[in-house]
Amino acid sequence: MIQHLNNIHHSDSTNFFLIAGPCIIEGEDMALRIAEKVITITDKYKIPYIFKGSFKKANRSRVDSFTTIGEEKSLEILKKVGETFNIPTTTDIHENEHAALAARYVDVLQIPAFLVRQTDLLVAAAKTGKCVTLKKGQFLSPEAMKFAVEKITDSGNTKTAIIERGNSFGYSDLVVDFRGIPTMQQYAPVILDVTHSLQQPNQSSGVTGGRPELIETIAKAGIAVGADGLFIETHPDPSCALSDGANMLKLDQLEALLQKLTRIREAIL
Question: Where does this chain mainly localize (predicted)?
Answer without folding.
Answer: cytoplasm
